[in-house]
Structures are given as structure tokens and as C-alpha cells.
Amino acid sequence: MILVDTALRRRAEANNPVKVGMIGAGFMGRGIANQILNSVPGMKLVAISNRNIEGARRAYQEAGAENVVQVKRLDALEDAIRAGQPAIAEDAHLLCRAENIDVLIEVTGAIEFGAEIVLDAIAHGKHMVLMNAELDGTVGPLLKAKADAAGVVLSACDGDQPGVQMNLFRFVKSIGLTPLVCGNIKGLQDPYRNPTTQKGFAEQWGQQPHMVTSFADGSKISYEQAIVANATGMCVSKRGMIGRDHRGHVDELTAFYDIDALKECGGIVDYVVGSQPGPGIYVLGTIEDPKQRHYLNLYKLGEGPLYSFYTPYHLCHFEVPLSAARVALFGDAVMAPIGAPKVEVVATAKTNLKAGDTLDGIGWYMTYGEAENANVVKAESLLPMGVAEGCVLRHDIPKDKTLTYGDIILPEGRLIDRLRVEQDAYFVSS
Question: For the segment 342-386, what is each residue's pLDDT rounded down to a tens digit?
Fold first, then answer.
């Protein structure tokens, strides 16, 4: 932030704002639009794409934008940007190809469509900030490799808990400690929640029930911790993570982990339910130097060998524009995979499923996601949650069984399945 706010101020003073395009205008997209338009000098939201065009218009209107123009061609979009007119479009590919956009923010939460858009953005030399852990956790390593080859930055975002963890992970490393646990603080974990049980909460906050369900049933946190693992090289200690219920402070978690086991596996991602300060994140680290341990004890972090660091909040859309600035101005990814997948998210039956059933999506009625180490996923041919929707069951599946590719028939012609095959082949050969 110390660098980013100064750099943005200079862009504002030079009347040369960072030009941002946003794809997706749902609940979170509207918050991002409002933030950029009203609170981020030196940045301009020049265009919004949404498959329902009225959603894009609403995002601008709620943020107070005037003279919004709908465009259907690339030249019209470029003209609007040059004229300083906020532009909306149904066709997201226009934003991917517009020369006058510096960085894109993808906020769709969709996997198949999101993959299509990211590939087009990369092909046209666009940096991209993903607020889409589901896509990142399914084919993020391959997309990152493609972005690197094209010389563009593909990044997760600040504000959401994975990015907050990564910022703290980088800080802990920068002061000389070795991070061994990256953790997420949850208020609720129940794998059997569904859109019916979450309907009232969703309506209270103006969100969609299946999106709320993905948080409650553990699918979302599985994706969030998977992408942290893929960006840090960490693993999970067991399928689904440990996920303790601990109603005390996160500092007390230092007593619950076996440091030798953590060191042996290179660190783990995890979560805790009910701890304070929620809904933040924590990183537990260690250091061998006894002199530095003495100083850490003096500074009230205890005697070790594990030391607790935490951020007591995550502010989602408030921070996402800062991610776009980091990418556009410094080429600094908030978080991105460092190589082959370390952790994947697999689909587990939420209820007894029947042969011939067509699986619904993330946060719906039929499956929940669990984080599992990628080598186990490959060895057991487990079904990634990100490809489960639309698959047809070959036979009955009992509740709480993790699905495999042998249990399902894949839909034909999907991009995400081709990308999964390509990702497997790429990291075998690289």
C-alpha cells in the first residue's frame, strides 16, 4: 500500500489513470465499481461487461456514473474510452481486445466462461486480476504458465482471504521466518448446507443462495486454501484439512500443530472455525536463530517454536482495485501458482446420489468440495469440483463419498476438460 497509493496519486496528478475493465457485475462487482469510481484516485473503470447488460448498467449507476454508453463493437468501445464515457457491453471479448485498457478484473465466479475470457485476455496481452478462486483452483497453474509465456500478469486479488494470507505470508518470510501454516478463520462449516437452508441469509445480504452455500458447505474455503497452497508450495495434512473448532484466539493455535510434521511436508494450508479475531486469517511461522527467538519473545510473540501472525479482517472489494494497481504499475502479482498444482478441490457427495443424476454446481444440492493433495487426486483419479457440474453419474454414490472420473460421464465439448488434460500434460513434461 505504501508504494501503491503513491504511484496512484502520481497517475492522478498526471491525469493518466490506470484504465481498468471489469467482467462480471454481480454483488461483488458492484462493490468494486463503487470503490474505483469513488475512492481510488489515479484509476478509472472504463468499461464493464456482463452477460445481462442491465447488471453492468446498474453497477455504474449505483456508483454514480453518468452518460453510460452501451457498445457492441470494438471500435465503439475504444471511442468511448478515449472520450471518457463509461462503457458497458454484453460481449466480454471486446474488453479483452481493447488497446485502451491496462488491466482486467474478472469477477464472474464462473469456471467455463471464466476460462474462455482469461485465455482471450492472455492472447491479447492483457493483465488480469482474478476474483475467481474456483477457476484458479481448477486450471490456475496452466493459465499462469500461459500468461508467463505471453508476458502478462495473472493474479489473484487483495481483500479476499487468499490474497490477505499471501500478503502476510510474504511479510513473515521478509522478516526472516519460515511460514509453516497458512490459515483461514471461518464462522461456520457444515458440508450439508444447501440453497434452501441458506436462502434467508442470502436475501438478508442481497446475495445468491448458491453463492452463500458455497461458503457454508466448505467448497469456497477449499478453493481458497487450494490456491494459497499452489502459490506457496504448501499441502494439506489430510483431505478436507484439519479444520478445528476453536473458540479462543488464533494465537493459541501454535500449541496445536506438530512443528516437525509441518517442516517435513513444507507447511500446510488449513482453517479454523470460531476463532478470534474473525473473519480474518493467520500465518504461523518459525525461526531457528536463538537470538531472533529472544527478540520475538521480547516483542510478546512468545517463546516459539511457532509464532502467530494474523490479520483480523478481509475487506474484499475495498482492496481489489489495489490489486489492479499492483499488477498494472509494478507487475506484482498478489498471488499466483508457482508451478504444478499442489492442492486440488474434489467433489464429494452431499447426499445419496442416484445413477443417471446430472450433477449440479458449486454451492448447490448434490456435492461439496474438499481440498486434497494433487498427487492423491491424480493417483485415485478423483473428480475435480470444477468439472463436476453437468456430469452424469454412472451408478449410485453414497453420501460423503468422494467422486472419481470412473463414476461419471463427462459432457462433450467443454473447454475446462480440454484445459485439465492440457494442464496434466504440461506439468508432466515441464
Answer: 999 999 999 999 999 999 999 999 999 999 999 999 999 999 999
Residues 34 and 134 in one domain: yes
pLDDT of 134 > 90? The answer is yes
Q: What is the pLDDT of residues 354-364, one digit of tens each?
A: 999 999 999 99
Same domain assignment for residues 352 and 292: no
Please check whether residues 171 and 285 belong to one and the same domain.
yes
Is residue 335 in a domain?
A: no
Contact 353, 369 (CB under 8 A): no
Sign of CA dihedral 265, 271, 277, 278: positive
Backbone angles phi, psi at 229, to 5 degrees: -60, -45
Beta bridge partners of 106: 23, 130
Q: Do 227 and 133 meet the contact criterion of CB atoms below 8 Å apart?
A: yes
Q: Which residues, including other chains, have CB under 8 Å from residue 404's CB and lie 6 or more apart?
A: 380, 381, 382, 383
Does residue 22 lie within any of the structural domains?
Answer: yes
SS3 for the chain is CHHHHHHHHHHHHCCCCEEEEEECCCHHHHHHHHHHHHHCCCEEEEEEECCCHHHHHHHHHHCCCCCCEECCCHHHHHHHHHHCCCEEECCHHHHHHCCCCCEEEECCCCCHHHHHHHHHHHHCCCEEEECCHHHHHHHHHHHHHHHHHHCCCEECCCCCHHHHHHHHHHHHHHCCCEEEEEEEEECCCCCCCCCCCCHHHHHHHCCCHHHHHHHHCCHHHHHHHHHHHHHHCCECCCCCCCCEECCCEHHHHHHCCCHHHHHHHCCEEEEEECCECCCCEEEEEECCCHHHHHHHHHCCCCCCCCEEEEECCCCHHHCHHHHHHHHHHHCCCCCCCCCCCCEEEEEEECCCECCCCECCCCCCCCEEEEEEEHHHHHHHCECEHHHHCCCEECCCECCCCECEHHHEECCCCCHHHHHHHHHHHHHHHC
> Dihedral of CA 390/393/399/401: which sign?
negative
Beta bridge partners of 35: none
In a domain, 225, yes or no: yes
Same domain, residue pair 218 and 306: yes
Q: Are residues 309 and 384 in the same domain?
A: no
CA distance 373 to 342: 6
Place of cell 496528478: 13
In a domain, 325, yes or no: yes
Look up the domain containing 287 and give its range.
161-316
Q: Are residues 122 and 269 in the same domain?
A: no
